[in-house]
Amino acid sequence: MYDMKALYEATSVENAVELRLEHPEAQIIAGGSDVLVQMREGKRAGKELISIYGLDELRGITIDENENIRIGSLTSFSHITRDPIIQKYINVLGEAVDMVGGPQIRNIGTIGGNTCNGVTSADSASTLHAWEAIVELTGKNGVRRLPIKDFYIRAGQVDIRVEDGEIQTAILIPKASYENTFGHYIKYAMRNAMDIATLGCSVNVRLSEDKKTIERARIAYGVAGPVPMRAPHAEAVANGQPISMELIDRFGLAVLEDINPRDSWRASKAFRQHIAVEMAKRCLFESIRLAGGEL
Amino acid sequence: MAQYKLVRFTLNGKEVEKMVDVRASLTDMLRNDYHLTSVKKGCEVGECGACNVLIDGEAFNSCIYLAVWADGKNIRTLESLTGPDGEISDIQQAFMEESAIQCGFCTPGFIMTAVEILETKKLYTRDELRKLLSGHLCRCTGYENILNAVEKTMKRRLGVPVE
Ligand SMILES: Cc1cc2nc3c(=O)[nH]c(=O)nc-3n(C[C@H](O)[C@H](O)[C@H](O)COP(=O)(O)OP(=O)(O)OC[C@H]3O[C@@H](n4cnc5c(N)ncnc54)[C@H](O)[C@@H]3O)c2cc1C
Ligand code: FES
Ligand code: FES
């Protein structure tokens, strides 16, 4: 038994919003792989929960009328990885979430939960930052959309307005982000499975038509700071530059101007900085290769 | 005050219904209400896979799954693998042949994930199988024999020679 005060099961998005307004103290539970574990640990003991797990309308991946890739917030990791739209346009996201926990966790864990928890080590977060994803929230005033970088406020805190009854309903990847773009994610952890990232790095590039120049490079990290973050200095080093190994080296070193990892029991700051450079280089190399560039 | 909900679902091939305490995990309901004790209580926080069951064909750790979510689902536990006269299935047989069982605590969980893998009818490499089975902890066998048992059953079912 969980130490739960009450459970309200939402029957639609509208109903979920109503339940949130009626029970402002209650917490949303999607797949529950964070919430139920924290309830067992005592951190969320005695709370009321609003379950949105039954809302199938929030599952699945489509291309919307503006050609955004639309990922319903309740879509599980394993369904993201297997989805043909993801595989075609943003395969790196499917690969990144395929590194979460183990197979059973990937069947229950949702992308909504992975972003709403505000956790810097979340395996989807760096890729979503590097592809400038848009977060869609639905509340009593309708739909609100904001760039993912503004969604994260601080560690464990995201911009969801409980007073407006908001829940996250989708994550969108704009066409400008995925068109002709190829990316790679590296999760550095002590074990290959069932481990949280010591550092996560996601890079993507768009190359010129002759595949000799980087038109646009984007890079984001998880665990390089309290929330997932981009590395703008590194991006500026690579943008518009002809591809070379020397460029990749400079790109890697430039990330040190952006990131601010900390000492923790998992790894020291110095070690995280060291692997951050190496991961940036390897991710950029692989992204260029996937985009058809030669090195 | 205790809060209850009526759930209707398919359990090991049979339609069932139950008034269940909303605070119950699926593990609690399967063990306490249906006496399906193949569903083990290990870590109870999603780490070890001992409580794993199949829900609509996918593997889930039932310790971090609300019992009320079972409503409308098709749930299978290890008990569903036994034949009408108590015969065991090929995957269980392979676990015995390969000494993939010592204390047996992790076995039902592993076997249900193996069932999910086998039902895809795909031929996986050893490395792929290792990844697909990585959501389970075993303190006894060292995993190699478990991999052998799953690989052997996969190959047999697909008619691929087992070396
Ligand atoms: C054994 C184990 C291993 C794990 N390994 C990893 C790992 O390697 N990498 C990783 O990134 N994560 C890992 N996790 C954490 C977890 O699985 C993920 O964060 C998952 O994405 C959470 O999704 P969920 O649907 O289960 O979230 P829940 O637990 O249901 O919710 C998480 C948080 O988000 C809120 N929330 C969820 N959905 C919404 C919504 N639509 N609108 C508003 N608020 C919402 C909840 O209120 C809660 O605060 C692991 C968890 C376990 C138990
Ligand atoms: S008991 Fe459920 S995963 Fe360990
Ligand atoms: S056989 Fe003992 S835990 Fe696996």
* Shape label of chain A: globular
SSE run of chain B = EEHEEEHHHH
CATH architecture of the largest domain in chain A: 2-Layer Sandwich
The total count of helices of chain B amounts to 5
What distinguishing features does this structure have?
heterodimer, A: Uridine Diphospho-n-acetylenolpyruvylglucosamine Reductase, domain 3, Enolase-like, domain 1, five-stranded antiparallel beta sheet, four-stranded antiparallel beta sheet, 13 helices, 34% helix, B: 163 residues, alpha+beta, Ubiquitin-like (UB roll), five-stranded mixed beta sheet, binds flavin-adenine dinucleotide, binds FE2/S2 (inorganic) cluster
Brief account:
The complex is a heterodimer of chains A (295) and B (163). Chain A has 295 residues and is α+β, with helices and mostly antiparallel strands.
Molecular structure report:
The complex is a heterodimer of chains A (295) and B (163). Chain A is α+β, with helices and mostly antiparallel strands and 295 residues long. Chain A is 34% helix and 24% strand. Chain A folds into 3 domains: 47 residues, no CATH class; 116 residues, Uridine Diphospho-n-acetylenolpyruvylglucosamine Reductase, domain 3; 111 residues, CO dehydrogenase flavoprotein, C-terminal domain (Enolase-like, domain 1, 2-Layer Sandwich). Chain A has 13 helices and 14 strands. In chain A, the strands form 4 sheets. Chain A has a 5-stranded antiparallel sheet. In chain A, helix 11 packs antiparallel against helix 12 and helix 12 packs antiparallel against helix 13. The relative contact order of chain A is 0.11. Chain B has a 5-stranded mixed sheet, sandwiched between helices. In chain B, 31% of the residues lie in helices and 17% in strands. In chain B, a hairpin with a 2-residue loop joins strand 1 and strand 2.
